[in-house]
Amino acid sequence: MSQLAAQLDVSTATVSLALRDNPAVSLETRKKVQALAQELGYIYNRQAASLRTSRTDIVGVVVHDVLNPYFAEVFRAVEAELEAQGFTILICNHRDEIHRQRNFVQVLQQQNADGLVICPSLGTTSADIDAIVRSGTPVTVICRDVDGATAPSVRGDDFLGMYEITTHLIGQGHRSLAIVGGRRMTSAGRDRHGGFLAAMREAGLTPVADIPELMTLTDGRNVVDRLLALETRPTAIVCFNDLIAFGVMSGLTKAGLRPGVDVAVTGYDDVDGSASWAPSLTTVKNGSDEIGIQAARAIKALIEGEEPPFQRLLIPPRLEVRASSTGG
Fold first, then answer.
1. Domain ranges of the chain
2. Alpha-carbon distance 20 to 292, whole Å?
């Protein structure tokens, strides 16, 4: 570092920041430092630097499904916000298995990660989150809540979003509604299911089917035969997320039915592609960008030893009405 600083006539502190791509150093200077470092074969030793600063500038992001485009959107927002502050992001996929989550957390702590952003797996308790907090590692919870945990959390208002989309279907004249998907042991699964049931009760209706634990496009495609075999066929199918809805619409089409015309279908999350699907999908915009930005701000504040900007933050949902529920 001293050699780089001397050749470029800058301080070693400037070299250190530039090698970490910290925006506190001008882009021009960062490029000069990084270009010379590459020419000289220099590799920044993050572990050695952490001994001096007690910081690694690493934040771990732990989610349950990196293949779900919604979580990819949340991660992208977290990453963009934190990278602008000079952090490097490591992502882990626990696949909703608590032992994998605990293992990832342990490994990230062993690597002295400055903080963790976690979408908690099934079975996560307040004791799990509080143990991380007590260890001294800042943590922020996203997308799912953990009742009683002391860490800040940010997620969409799942109850309200599902209530609104169910009310929309009832307003379209539907009386035979089915709900499919969602892990009811998570806050998202519980709240979306609760919002659906609240809207149904208000209208004096009972669901013709209530099928939990489905999460993927394949799950949605496979459940269609079961729904069509019901004594009372649903005229509207309310899906826990957009992936299930895509699968349901594919299954209906294969069965010779027209999604949005013969059977209404709704999703949740408004992932990329929802508006361009055929038919375009009625869904709920679930604030992926805002959740990611707010989570990044909270974890940065905790890392800096400051009070987080919130303890519990619900991002308001936005109903996106499209052809899959209106036939238009």
1. 2-44, 56-155+287-315, 158-286+319-326
2. 22
